[in-house]
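Annex B. Sample input.
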Amino acid sequence: MQNSPSKILGLLACLPLAVVISTAYAQSDVTQPGDPVIASSSNSPGSEGVANAIDNTQAKYLNRDSANDANPSGFVVTPSVGITRVTGMTITSANDAPERDPKTVILEGSNDTQVGGWNDPTNTWVLIAGVTNIPLFTARFQTQAFFFQNFKPYRHYRWTVLATQSDLTGTHNSCCMQVAEVELLGSTLPPDVTQPGDPVIASSSNSPGSEGVANAIDNTQAKYLNRDSANDANPSGFVVTPSIGSSLVTGMTITSANDAPERDPKTVILEGSNDADIGGWNNPTNTWTFIAGATNIPLFTARFQTQTFLFDNFTPYKHYRWTVLATQSDLTGTHNSCCMQVAEVELLGTAAPQDVT
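Annex B, continued. Sample output.
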């Protein structure tokens, strides 16, 4: 499914975006020179091609498609570090002609396996953020930074200039769009705080012998199946105590099992506990605190497909309870009279911060 820049432009007013003039936050650039990059077109001078946009130098990327703001221009980049979560970007003005600087920019993400081109109709792009009315760059090689909320990681990013600073500088832009450098600020995904062999408690014993709860965190495609969720009658899931100790979890992945898509999770909640001991899945002596929930999880389009969910969490916990409240029953065209099943669950985070004094 293809989102055109013209459709996206109408959404920009709804996107909160903070603007600062220096990179004051801890995010780092997820791109690096040599990452696969695709220009919006080949309408660039030979020495001012798209690779310059992420080369960490002042060499500029210039594209003539944006002359008179007639067409958008930009690039697609696939960070070689892998899947990333981007929450900001910087733009550095080029060496001359301020009227060519970006004024309106959008950033989109895609998790397609491959990108067929700048505007390939087989690719699906999701709007991450946009900024309109970028302040005039007051100097050449000046950097402006833009930060935004984004809780979804992506494999590929499309950066598009919809309008330049033409006329606002006192000079009409009949040439092009140009930029010295673009940085996409973010991070790679945090690691899984669980590992095979961690203490894990099933919501019940209502599972086949070979499809028990340990499979949920075994780092294989073997599945955990629990029949309590037949007809979505009861919740099912597990409690896990990561052996690394107290941890700060800010995301999770869910990998679909080998068959029967109607059994996949649709609504999931994650809770944490700092009790000394866990008496069971639902022991009344334990205290659980809600961390995050995922509702209306999109249908898994393939078996053993992984979906990732990121969220804010500032409290470390010793134990986690992962609960499926509803499956994809009926949405797949088949009623789920069996169970809930999942191939793997990862809890993404880090060990709890330590006192540095």
